[in-house]
Amino acid sequence: MTKYSEIKLLTFDVILAATQGDTNALHKVVEHYEGYIAKLCMHSYRGKNGDYYYVDEEMRNRLKVRLVERTLKFKLDF
After folding, report:
1. How far apart are CA 63 and CA 58, in angstroms?
2. 34-49 per-position pLDDT tens digit
3. What are the DSSP E strand ranges found in the chain?
4. pLDDT tens across 5-23, in order?
5. pTM of the model
6. Quick one: 28 exposed, middle or buried, by C-beta within 10 A (0-12, 13-18, 19+)?
7. How many CA atoms within 13 Å lie on the side-chain side of 58?
8. What residues contact residue 30 under an 8 Å CB cut-off, 6+ apart?
9. Which residues, including other chains, have CB under 8 Å from residue 25's CB and lie 6 or more apart?
10. Which residue, 7, 15, 27, 72, has fewest beta-carbon neighbours within 10 Å?
11. Under a CB-based contact definition with an 8 Å cutoff, are residues 68 and 26 in contact?
């Protein structure tokens, strides 16, 4: 298990740029959450030779789009 201190967080500057529509910043946000999104989209089934796992690509793409949409709607008040 990854220790909390080892997790690289997004910087405020990246989040601010992403909310303003910067494509590079949005890419960094999606990249940051890539593993979590893949885990949410993981499905398993039992086959003849044991358990199999796969990532539902349609759901994965929908979640990425939703993340970008919500990031663009996010308002920072400071």
Report:
1. 9
2. 999 999 999 888 877 8
3. 42-47, 50-55
4. 677 899 999 999 999 999 9
5. 0.81
6. middle
7. 0
8. 64, 67, 68
9. 14, 15, 17, 18
10. 7
11. yes
